[in-house]
Amino acid sequence: MAGTQNPHGHNHGMDSARAKVEQMKKQWAQKKMVADTLASVGTKIGVYSGKGGVGKTTVSVNLAVTLAQTGKDVGILDVDIDCPNVVRALAVAEKPEVGEDNRMIPPEAFGVKVMSMAFFQKKEDEATIWRGPMIHNAINQLLQSTNWGKLDYLIVDLPPGTSDSPLTVMQTLSLDGFVVVTTPQDLSKIDALRSINMIKKLNIPVLGVVENFSGEIFGTGAGKALANLAKVDHLGNLSLKIDYRESVKPTVLTSLDVKQEYELVASNTLDVLK
Questions:
Q1: Radius of gyration, alpha carbons of the chain
Q2: Maximum CA pair distance of the chain?
Q3: Is domain 40-273 annotated with CATH 3.40.50.300?
Q4: Cα atoms in the Cβ-side hemisphere of radius 13 Å centred on 73
């Protein structure tokens, strides 16, 4: 009959709205728990790139160690779900311990507290296939169950690209700003610009751009050009050097040239945060 409404359709609409409200409540509660867990953490800096293979983890690790060398309390959180390489880059031998409050105490390497998804992989070479909700839950659990203690800085190594994984981290973790890593190649620059636009859409500050692998082989200047284009700071260039092949410890501890480059990037990053 014309004009007769389907009561089931009406109920379905209400159920759907109710489910949405419940979902929002749940997300808000999770975000609050994460915020409470990180209450003793000072500044949270995300290190991010538009694509893999630009040296994002190397930058994260060396930046964290550089800050720790100044006498600050520093942690590094590796939430690169697909390739969590921080543990290997810092040669962390021990696993996290479980404290009295049932939360994990991150092990320390080179003066930096480390927490990573890699601690929970059965095999290092095992591929983990993640779906959206799984990513969300895994990251939330990792954030809620880590006891960092007091930290001045937490460096967060994010998954690259603009997919579900980095988006989940950005929405779950209230970061103070992002350092975006690019290389001198044009393709990397385009991907990095896409990443910067995504961060800006989420109203999170972009602290600036770092050009990695800079020098004679790949050229130089793309980082500065990208920074100008995106209207953000250029934090510095990191040269492609043979020094990085010595992988027993972070390169800032073995090469004076690399150390000085990272000190400049760290100093510029902190200046933008002021």
A1: 21
A2: 83
A3: yes
A4: 10
